[in-house]
């Protein structure tokens, strides 16, 4: 605190992008610890005079969780959204200078939850405090008891709350050697998991059938039950259709039979339309409260329509998106545009449809980890698939490593998930995990006219 008291006010321009670059090269690259969650809170009262998109993406891609805090009335909301980690509703906060003291508890809570701590509240989201003099903000999620109003206006109503997301796991270790293929065990997670399946003409009937076989194998790796994992599938090409919803089947056998009957449309690649139907036809309709939402997008080519806005709407409602590019015609930038940050942990590529079976344990593990469970189990990952990742941060229940996967070369970090070279490694050890609290108890409350609004909470498994 003594050092903070000595900070001099420069009173010059607003070059936020340059500041973000220095945070990366002068802090996280130099003195950040391995196995510890990395969090950045950006405080600004105006619009940057330089680019923030590139510098903030580099930070997010190395595993830094970014909260954007706009103060006053001159900030640019789009710029705050651009810097922040997805979803914006949980990572963008706005307020006035004279309300900073009132916001301390919310900011501390957000940072503590982002670091995998138990915190004092349920997840408060990035809603901020709306009101005449209060803080405007997005929807956010109200936690636990919520914030009760006091002398001022009423505070937020308590919701389901969020017990904290599972901390990011570090990158999968890389080793060569013989290794052993992993065994298939049910993922213990309870999750609403959607597949967006590409049915475009470029895939071909034979490869489309391989995709269906992949889906059937995938389903068997999860505990499909009414009180377990629910799976929904949307097929897209020139148009999109719901194959089945989250509440259509509650057993793997029925799902596998339905998948086997999917017809190949062999038309265009309108991924954006498919993303919109996943949101409006699956998550908006049959997703459960308090359960993690995950989407896996499977595609072999570039979309003929926009994917940026539809995928952002899904991420902003709390859906974790994994982008899965198959073959050689996919657009890597488009995969990154759809996926949840960091892209190094949410973008997977596979050199050909014949390697889908080899990649199955990796995809199952990623989906299970994303749901806050202990992983898909087994003795490691099947050889022939390669996977890279950054150092990451410990958190969640963790994923215990297996015997390691066979691999010929190993892979470098920061590359995303890539099939073809071989993987291995001892796995990633988890940390303490993130638990939610009871929500914020009222006191004098936070003055403002409407208090903090919340959206549905999501319970980590």
UniProtKB/TrEMBL annotation:
Listed SMART domains: VWA (SM00327)
Source organism, top-level taxon: Eukaryota
Compartment(s) where it occurs, according to its Swiss-Prot or TrEMBL record: Secreted
Descriptive protein name: Cartilage matrix protein
One Gene Ontology term, aspect cellular component: extracellular region
All copies of domain VWFA, residue ranges: 1-110, 192-366
Pfam family, one: VWA
Keywords associated with the record: Glycoprotein, Repeat, Secreted, Signal
Source organism (scientific name): Desmophyllum pertusum
InterPro entries: ECM_Assembly_Org, VWF_A, vWFA_dom_sf
């Amino acid at each position: 605190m003594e050092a903070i008291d000595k900070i001099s006010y420069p009173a010059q321009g607003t070059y936020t992008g340059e500041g973000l670059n220095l945070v990366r090269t002068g802090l996280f690259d130099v003195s950040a610890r391995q196995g510890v969650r990395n969090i950045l809170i950006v405080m600004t009262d105006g619009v940057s005079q330089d680019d923030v998109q590139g510098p903030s993406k580099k930070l997010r891609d190395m595993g830094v969780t970014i909260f954007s805090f706009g103060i006053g009335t001159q900030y640019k909301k789009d710029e705050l959204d651009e810097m922040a980690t997805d979803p914006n509703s949980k990572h963008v906060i706005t307020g006035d200078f004279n309300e900073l003291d009132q916001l301390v508890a919310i900011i501390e809570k957000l940072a503590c939850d982002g670091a995998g701590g138990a915190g004092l509240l349920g997840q408060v989201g990035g809603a901020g405090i709306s009101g005449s003099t209060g803080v405007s903000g997005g929807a956010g999620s109200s936690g636990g008891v919520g914030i009760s109003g006091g002398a001022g206006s009423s505070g937020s109503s308590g919701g389901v709350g969020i017990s904290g997301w599972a901390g990011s796991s570090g990158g999968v270790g890389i080793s060569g050697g013989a290794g052993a293929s992993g065994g298939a065990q049910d993922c213990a997670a309870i999750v609403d998991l959607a597949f967006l399946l590409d049915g475009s003409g470029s895939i071909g009937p034979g490869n489309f059938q391989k995709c269906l076989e992949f889906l059937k194998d995938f389903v068997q790796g999860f505990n499909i039950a009414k009180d377990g994992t629910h799976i929904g599938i949307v097929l897209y090409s020139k148009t999109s259709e719901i194959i089945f919803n989250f509440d259509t089947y509650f057993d793997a056998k029925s799902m596998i039979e339905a998948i086997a009957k999917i017809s190949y449309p062999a038309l265009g690649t309108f991924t954006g339309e498919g993303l919109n139907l996943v949101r409006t036809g699956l998550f908006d309709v049959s997703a459960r409260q308090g359960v993690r939402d995950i989407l896996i997008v499977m595609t072999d080519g570039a979309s003929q329509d926009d994917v940026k806005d539809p995928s952002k709407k899904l991420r902003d409602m709390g859906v974790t998106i994994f982008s899965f590019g198959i073959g050689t015609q996919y657009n890597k930038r488009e995969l990154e545009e759809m996926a949840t940050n960091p892209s190094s942990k949410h973008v997977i590529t596979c050199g050909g449809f014949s390697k889908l079976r080899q990649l199955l344990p990796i995809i199952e593990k990623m989906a299970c980890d994303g749901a806050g469970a202990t992983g898909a189990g087994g003795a490691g990952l099947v050889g022939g698939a390669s996977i890279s990742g950054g150092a990451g941060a410990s958190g969640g229940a963790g994923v215990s490593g297996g015997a390691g996967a066979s691999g010929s070369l190993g892979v470098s970090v920061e590359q995303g998930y890539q099939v073809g070279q071989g993987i291995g490694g001892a796995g990633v050890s988890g940390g303490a995990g993130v638990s939610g609290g009871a929500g914020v108890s009222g006191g004098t409350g936070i003055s403002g006219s409407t208090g903090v609004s919340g959206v549905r909470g999501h319970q980590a498994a």
